[in-house]
Amino acid sequence: MYTFQYEQVTSLPQATSLISEGGQALAGGQTMLAAMKQRLMAPQRLVDLSRVKDLVGIEVYGESVLIKAMTTHQTVEHSALVQEKIPSLALLAGGIGDRQVRSLGTIGGSVANNDPAACYPAALLALGATVITTKREIAADDFFLGMYATALEEGELITAVRFPVPNLSGYAKFKQPASRFALVGVYVAQTTSGVKVAVTGAGNGVFRHSELERVLTQSYKPESVDSVQIDPSQLNSDIHASALYRANLISVQTKEAVRQSLLKD
What we know:
The chain has eleven helices and 14 strands. It has helices spanning about 10-20, 30-35, 75-80, 80-85, 85-95, 100-105, 105-115, 120-125, 140-145, 210-220, 245-265; strands at about 5-10, 25, 45-50, 60, 65-70, 130-135, 135-140, 145, 150, 160-165, 170-175, 180-190, 195-200, 205-210. The strands form four sheets. A five-stranded antiparallel beta sheet has the order 4-5-10-6-7. A four-stranded antiparallel beta sheet has the order 11-12-13-14, sandwiched between helices.
C-alpha cells in the first residue's frame, strides 16, 4: 500500500469532526481496502468507525425498523426483529458475499458505496426506506444517483437506515458465482399504497421498474410479470451476461421474489 494516517474513533462527534476535516470514513472495509490495495483509492486519512457504539443496533421505530449504519450483514441476517418484521431483508443480508464479508461488511458502508450490483440499494428503493445522516434524512428515491454515486455531501455520514414494514416483500438474486454480487437481483414490496419493484445488477445503478410495479399493483401474483416486456436497451452487457439475458433474468427473479413473499404471508 502507501502511507496514510489511521484514526480509530469511539464517538460520533469525533468521527464527524475528523471527516469534516477531510478524513475518509472506514466502515467494514470490504470494498475500500480492496480498492486501496489496487491503488484505485488513495485516502490520506482513514477514520475507522468500528468502535462507535452509537452506530450499531437494530430497533423498532414506529411502524418501521431502524438499522444503524455500522450494523453488519450478519447481524441483520440473524436479527429476530428483522426476521419477524421484514424477513426478506434478513434473507437478503444472508446472501451477501461469504461469511467473512457478512461478519465485517456493514449496511451503511454498502449503501454509501452504492455498487451497481449490491443488494441493499434494491431493498431501500423497494421498501421506500429513508437514509438518516449526520445532517438530514434522505428518501431512497432521492439518494441513489447512479453508479457509485449518491446524494451524500462532503463530510456527511450515514448514521442509520429506516425501513417501513411492508405487507409483503421478497428478494431474489441470481449470483455472479465468483463475486457473489447480483448478476440480477429484484426486490419486491407490497404496501397499502401499491407495489414497488427495484432491480440491481442489471444496469448502471439500482433502479425501479414502473411497468412491473403497475401490473403487480393491479394483480399481485407471479403470472402478472409475464405481461411485461423487459427492454434490454438500457441494461448491461459484459463477460458474465448479455443485456438480453439480464432482461430475462429480471422477469424470472421478479416472479421468484413475488413467490417468496406469498410463502411468508
